[in-house]
Design a protein that fits this description.
Radius of gyration of chain B: 13 Å
Structural class of chain B: mainly beta
Oligomer: heterodimer
Helix content of chain B: under 10%
Shape of chain A: globular
Distance between the termini of chain A: 39 Å
Chain lengths: 115, 111
């Protein structure tokens, strides 16, 4: 069966510090991978998605970057965090589809607080 | 730009009541998904609808895709406290490898 893990689960960082959130998927190959950010109790904002190794699409100009060094690994980074980067970050994967996007399977989430 | 508008954003009702959540857009989607999310966890898929006018039932939950594939609704009959959570709709377009999410409906069912 497929599983997705992301870490750390909780992170408190000072403004200006770097960030690295990691996500790995097991039990599938060549998935689409996604990073979303969620404000408290609100909808999901797509930050980055990837259809393959080193193929990253950025949806929102911001202080963050993403990388996919391996097929099932997706990393969200920042060189210098801003207060506005605080939020709940969700990694997700989906099977590649010829039609529209299929079901998204989400990780457990990473709660980032920037102080 | 919010392409999918959900209403209401917050809903608090008593156990046993019925409710409907709406997901509207001016754009056409090839598919519409509904997710439910509990605090501190990732969303989990409830249903996918792909055909205009399609109706799907999941126990006490009824999902409908509008004829023009621009809107969808989620109706819950005899709501229970276990239905409490954040409900999210998400639209997909043909050939696009990403979904657009609505801003969510926070549902609270009081015993």
């Amino acid at each position: 069966s497929q599983t997705i893990h992301q870490w750390p689960a909780t992170l408190v960082q000072p403004v200006g510090s770097p960030l690295s959130l990691e996500c790995t998927v097991e039990g599938t190959s060549n998935p689409n991978l996604y990073w979303y950010r969620q404000a408290a109790g609100r909808g999901l904002q797509l930050l980055f998605y990837s259809i393959g190794i080193d193929q990253i699409s950025s949806e929102v100009p911001q202080n963050l970057s993403a990388s996919r060094p391996q097929d099932r690994q997706f990393i969200l980074s920042s060189k210098k965090l801003l207060l506005s980067d605080s939020g709940f970050y969700l990694c997700a994967w989906s099977v590649k589809a010829t039609g529209s996007t299929g079901e998204l399977f989400f990780g457990e989430g990473s709660r980032l607080t920037v102080l | 730009t919010q392409l999918l508008e959900q209403s209401p954003q917050f809903l608090s009702i008593q156990e046993g009541e019925n409710l409907t959540v709406y997901c509207n857009s001016s754009s056409v989607f090839s598919s519409l998904q509904w997710y439910r999310q509990e605090p501190g966890e990732g969303p989990v898929l409830l249903v996918t609808v792909v055909t205009g006018g399609e109706v799907k039932k999941l126990k006490r939950l009824t999902f409908q895709f509008g004829d023009a594939r621009k809107d969808s609704s989620l109706h819950i009959t005899a709501a229970q406290p276990g239905d409490t959570g954040l409900y999210l709709c998400a639209g997909g377009r043909q050939g696009a490898q990403k979904l657009v999410f609505g801003q969510g409906t926070r549902l609270t069912i009081n015993p």
